[in-house]
Amino acid sequence: MNSFFQTLSAIALIIVLMSLELKPKPKSRRTAPVKLHQEFEDEQPIKQD
Fold it and tell me: Which segment of the chain is annotated as a signal peptide (predicted)?
């Protein structure tokens, strides 16, 4: 029974970790282009000067 609960807890941990890993990925993908645009906006005035 102990091994059964250990496998259940391991599977639950994996599911939680997977859900946590999957959630930040879309956020990082969305923020990545925004950061690039902010960098270009910061670089443009420097290049114009």
Answer: 1-19
Query: Which residue range(s) make up the domain with 39?
Result: 2-48
Give, in degrees to the nearest 5, the angle at Cα 37 between 44 and 34: 160
pLDDT over 90 percentage in the chain: 24
pTM above 0.85, yes or no: no
Which H/E stretch holds residue 23?
A: none
How far, in whole angstroms, is CA 30 from its chain's centroid? 10
Cite the DSSP H helix spans in the chain. 2-22, 24-48
What is the number of structural domains in the chain?
A: 1
